[in-house]
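#struct-help
A.M.: can someone run this one for me? Single chain, 274 residues.
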Amino acid sequence: MHRTPHPPWRTTCVAAAAWLVACDACAQQSDEDLQKKLVNPIADIVTLPFQWTTNFDTGPFSKPQHTLNIQPVYPVRLDGGWSLINRAIVPLLSNPAVLPGQDREYGLGDITYEGFFAPPAKEGGLIWGVGPALIMRTATDERLGQGKWSLGPAVVALKETGAWSVGALATQVWSFAGDDSRPNVNAFSLQPIVSYRLDAKQSIGYIGIITADWNEKRSSQRWTVPLGVSYSLLVKPESFVPMNFVAGAGYNVIRPDNASDWFVRFQVNFILPK
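D.P.: on it. Structure tokens below:
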């Protein structure tokens, strides 16, 4: 039997209604529960953060360096209650000149993928996950990336106690392919996770990523250690997805020559229905 196809407006309305229902279900989660999940890198939650960072006094001419990181997170349920949390970091960069006469360089940096396999979380227990970290050679200019493909392990562990969430996310990568004229990569990063919930919608925490370049023989040039603090606000607009706003600033107490001293960061995080 021939059926008359639904008019396009009906399909659009049905899709819009489904989206609003999903948004409403997402908005019904408790504010405290959402705050916990936002701090947890391997939480069962779909998010789309946009993170802007300005690093001041960067390079030999002490100019600002800007980064917009787009960092989608999408968890997938596996057999046995395990999950695979897929995380990506897509950097859009504005890097200052490093030689006289150079212009500022804009473009895409090296994209990072992290995949964490995580067991079912137990109430009050340690939250953890482990998996690969892959840095892809995607930079649109040599000044925006390392010119290498790099791979290594990534691990995250987190403990929730009262209003506190404390843990860390660590990666170690080595280059395995890419431009032979560029230096090999042997890099470590440690992102401390320290967050304290002030109330149902507000929290404060640490921001910054500790990094080490093991190829650097001089210890004074090997480490970058930031000390920063952030303020986070959760909002739930009517008939829209919840959003989390973060603002913070920090100082690199240990840093290589020509590295930034102060930095500021602003982020908006869209909490999407799954």
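A.M.: thanks! The chain is about 10% helix and 55% strand.
D.P.: also worth noting: The first helix runs from residue 8 to 27.
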